[in-house]
Protein 1
Amino acid sequence: MIKIDVDMSKCQHYGQCVFEAPNIFKLNDDDKLEFVATADDSERANVEAAIDVCPMQAIFMVE
Ligand code: SF4
């Protein structure tokens, strides 16, 4: 199990993370980021990719 957190004070809702981990991140109807806070280990690589592409370095993962 992994835990995901996003610093919403940094997030600019660009959505790059959505492309890398679509099961975790999505932009809602107001183009605001929503995410699930816990996920199966199988999502680890996708979340790591999202962390790498986030231009604001706003995404954090806790083992
Ligand atoms: S890539 Fe980063 S800044 Fe963009 S929506 Fe995702 S968390 Fe927010």
Protein 2
Amino acid sequence: MDDQDAISRLKAALGPKGFLEGADAMARYLVDWRGLYRGPALLVARPATTQEVSACMRICSEAGIAVVPQGGNTGLVGGSVPRPEDARCILLSLDRMNTVRRLDALDFTITVEAGCILQNIQRAADEADRFFPLSLGAEGSCQIGGNLSTNAGGIQVLRYGMARDLVLGLEVVLPDGEVWDGLGGLRKDNTGYDLKQLFVGSEGTLGIITAAVLKLFPKPRVIETAFVAVRDPAAAIELLSRMRAGTGDVVTAFELIDRGILDLVFANVPGNADPLAQRHDWYVLTEAFGAEGSSGLRDAVEQVLGRAMEDGLVLDAVLAASGAQRQAFWKIREDMADAQKHEGVPIRHDVAVTVSRVPEFLARAIPACRDALPGARIIAFGHAGDGNIHFNLLPPRGGDKSAFQGEMARMNRVVHDIVVDMGGSISAEHGIGRLRRDELHHYKSPVAIALMRALKATLDPRNLLNPGKIV
Ligand SMILES: Cc1cc2nc3c(=O)[nH]c(=O)nc-3n(C[C@H](O)[C@H](O)[C@H](O)COP(=O)(O)OP(=O)(O)OC[C@H]3O[C@@H](n4cnc5c(N)ncnc54)[C@H](O)[C@@H]3O)c2cc1C
């Protein structure tokens, strides 16, 4: 089958609403969120059903055409767009598969199609007096299929876990078009390998997730949110430990924020204001959820903060007095990605160490980067409650931005060497995609790389599904 035959068969299988062609129509699918990665495609396929996804995979497999799956296209590692060399490829967008198939309130589960926008799943749960905890800055546009394929983290991992921990079942279309129906939704099932977890975090290289059964939780009735200035990162980690103990371990979010990123948010994104009267170097945005009748939660948080202030860990703090104030605190956090866009392309690191070693990581990485790249602006923020820091370098004000980008590989090495020396991870939650592929192969053990390659070769022997990503 030549490419023209394959495209004709794809169009027939998808129907007139199921594909886009032509450079203009396809353009927004073929560039990533940061505008860093672009690639070609013969066609953008937009299947509306699992059977249509399966038909696409069968046709492409027979024709030897590569397939790049795409969700909301908010990934930060270039995984969701084709590589320039993938001229014989289609982009497969899940955006039309956006139905909530079922919500089982008594089972605390929801069954959704892969193209459901994360925020819509949160809303559907809320309307049924339930709670779906996965939450991240891109939740208005990322899709659950993308979240599962990247094993997304976000702000509530501390209490509820990563995407991996929130999934009870999957439906997956394999590279040859076979459909694996694993949507049982059981809490317990030890019948052989846990196949769903193979696909979670595999970034569209092993199969296309078309639907998922997700865990729901009781809706929090009491929410306490505090914006806190801390003495330094060590004080922040000590505060986390006290917050967990003092609230009965109901802390859901614990974000460390340095002054550099706050200044960028206030300068570059309208609608934000400093919650505290004075400038400080380090802050924490933390939140705790309570059940019905947990009216003492506010007292507990106040007591922890009060004692931490007496001990010099906390320098100032404000507890949200209303839902609007809580949203204003979170808006600051959510605008951090946008705020950096105005300053040139950052050299990003999405790293994790054990929670207790976050201060040590910062104490090593900040001076190492200052020495290696004088003038670079260093910003550090992120999910410190999980040991995950977004440690980014921005070009000096007025500096040569493209020369700065040329330093990326060298600076990645500086930061990642420290992380790996501390037993940490070079990609805590954003994944590997194209951006971190060489780094993965540099740092992972040969045994781990060989296992990944063996899995890929078994499921996708012709390397047609999202080629060049991860392995
Ligand atoms: C402002 C902002 C804030 C962010 N904050 C966070 C954060 O806090 N935590 C976090 O973890 N990430 C964060 N991200 C990164 C990103 O939102 C996540 O990686 C998200 O899970 C990607 O979902 P998506 O639907 O956009 O996937 P895409 O970007 O479309 O795809 C990501 C990868 O998954 C594959 N894929 C997509 N859908 C499927 C499918 N159905 N089946 C198989 N493979 C598929 C793609 O091929 C690609 O490799 C943030 C991004 C932005 C822009």
